[in-house]
Amino acid sequence: MKPDKEKIDNGRRSFIGAAAGVSAAVVAPGVVLHTVDATAAPRTEPVTDLHRWGMLIDTSKCADGCSACVSACDRENGLNLQSKPLGDDPLKWDNQRAVWIRKVKLQDNTTGRITNLPLMCQHCENPPCVDVCPTGASFKRADGLVLVDRHTCIGCRYCMMACPYKARSFIHEKVDQKLTRAPRGKGCVESCTLCVHRLDEGDISTACADACNAEGHQAIVFGDLNDPDGPLRQALRQVPSRQIRQDLGLNTGVRYSGI
């Protein structure tokens, strides 16, 4: 006969398994259980520095007025689920809502030439946001991704002030809807993750690059900076590229050509 403790443990496992099979079952007011996609293959091995993920953005191919990458990022990460608080000024909400990619225009003061480009977290090798974070919520993974641990973030926003690219957003309001793969809550900072949820399931792609390719622009190439034969390194060999604010010595994972 099995010891009582083992019986209890088996019972707990059975309960947990049953609970995991419930889809959106309300267990208490405001508390909802969600299932995890059984077909997903989450990462089982620790992250290493074998890869360093990054991208090349060819501004000569980035179309003026196109926002496919922004819209795709919003859908992929649940940013489109944000809703303006009742009575809030639309301009205030537009300035405060979380945005991971924004399209910007740069003008050369000498020639007057205008360049369009998407700007997001640059995933620096030496990220200032990580340096100033008092809790360790801002951190850099071994594979180069700069992320935020929302459980540790205290909302001080030092990282936002330290980021030279203004690439981070603060969640000002209570969040009613969010995706399991992209949780967010009031009082936390967040930014582009280079679709880390895809990478950790073995999908070497980002929503923004896929959307840009689908539009026929091919302005964004995502890949591994450490792979000399990969598509990203091949693209970097074909065109001159640079980092935004290269003078800061941050060694960004995102590079741009045509600027």
State the main characteristics.
single chain; 259 residues; alpha+beta; Alpha-Beta Plaits; 2 domains; two-stranded antiparallel sheet; 8 helices; 11 strands; 17% strand
Task: Describe this structure as you would to a colleague.
This protein is α+β, with helices and mostly antiparallel strands and 259 residues long. The chain has two domains: 4-33; 53-257, Alpha-Beta Plaits (2-Layer Sandwich). 24% of the residues lie in helices and 17% in strands. The chain is built from eight helices and eleven strands. The protein has helices spanning 4-20, 68-76, 90-96, 128-132, 158-162, 196-199, 207-214, 231-238, and strands at 25-28, 31-33, 53-58, 102-107, 114-119, 138-140, 146-148, 169-170, 189-190, 220-224, 254-257. It has a three-stranded mixed sheet. A two-stranded antiparallel sheet has the order 1-2. The chain is globular.
